[in-house]
Amino acid sequence: METITQTAYEAHVNPQWVRLLNLLDMNAEYEVCRGEKLHTRDGRTILDFLSGYCVYNAGHNHPRIIEALRTELESDGPSMLQSHVAASAGKLAEKLCSRAGGRLRKAYFANSGSEGVETAIKFSRATTGRDGLLAARNAFHGLTCGALSLMDHRFWSEGFGSALPGVSFVDFGDSDALERELSSRKYAALILEPIQGEGGIVLPPDGYLQRAQTLCQKYGTLFVLDEVQTGLYRTGTFLASHHFGLDPDMVILAKALSGGLVPVGAVLMTDQVYDNVYSSLKRAIVHTSTYSENSLAMRAGLSTIEVLEQEGLGERALTLGESFREALRRALAEYEMVAEVRGLGFFNGIVFGQPRSLGLRLSFEAFRRIHPAMFGQVVVMRMFREHRILTQICGNNFMVLKAVPPLNGSEGSLDQFVIAIGQVMEVVHSSKSFWQDALQLAARAVKI
Ligand SMILES: Cc1ncc(COP(=O)(O)O)c(C=O)c1O
What we know:
CATH class of the largest domain: Alpha Beta
CATH superfamily of the largest domain: Type I PLP-dependent aspartate aminotransferase-like (Major domain)
CATH architecture of the largest domain: 3-Layer(aba) Sandwich
Radius of gyration: 22 Å
Bound molecules: pyridoxal-5'-phosphate
Shape: globular
Strand order of the largest sheet: 4-10-9-8-7-5-6
Number of strands: 15
């Protein structure tokens, strides 16, 4: 594959990113993207099984969302006057709250998932009068200072100075540890992803989230769910928390909410939370953001929900996701390095395990010493180069490969993914070429 140098980007944005993509042989120039298909300038069609980290639930450039945005742009209306009541924000908030259900009756609109998390931090402090925050190990909540403070993985925080004070971590799934922490009554919020995404598509143990909610109620801590990746029907239901019958105090959404076309975020909250933050006329704008409620994001949000629902993409993800995982399990059953296929809806991970046989173990260990992500990254490279499938390993768990296509990805594309990962695993287990690839990658990393 030809290496492309995007000169202005390299000079003025992030040259290290260009180097990394070149190193991985993944620097393609995408020209037209529709549904799950990415067409490149050099004539390839690549299947998207990453979905921009769960942005493209409705697929790339859905024509109805594009049309809604065109209409909005051509209306010459007030986009973000900051001096008016944004009716479309009201409509979107109403839709989101009605879909989310429970006690969630108000929405604050942000511009990203991280900004949503920042909002949840501030609002839980305002509601409880406490400072402490409790999060799960291996979580991913975003890279602004507050959100970053809720992440224990050193890779993301190293070199960026002190985290917020008062943050503690518990293992995801350990409800006894949760009770020990919560009983101190110092925490404003427990913030969890209902299914950990970057942690490795980790489903909660049975009853864990329900117990977490009960414990939060018992000890006066707000129960906050980060559904930035899992929301908007990614797992089959509007929120992943609907699978578990939860009634959180706040839910954070972003990514898929605007069809991947306009930055957006939303924090859904109870009236109690709202009343504690915006408690008087004087505090009507105590927490806001310039582009919050902008008409393009709101219009995109309304249209995205309509598309997801009218096309039945939640139910589709639920049923096809199940058969997709079954097909993956069948195709990968004989490979000792595949430990598990897990997920819900179209939020899936293929979990690699340490090989047992001596030959494989030696190669695997050697690779791991070069870099812990090396094995997964070579799988990603092969999927891209040989099978034209875009995917990635999880940010906090390099031994899990994502399989998260747009919710309207065709059955043919799902089949192609199953065949492709089967063939890559066959090469891993039967030929030296996979491991040679990794050595070449390591050698190139030194040179580039
Ligand atoms: C679960 C979760 N929360 C929050 C964020 C942060 O979102 P953003 O990148 O839009 O700030 C992410 C980003 O990947 C995420 O996966």
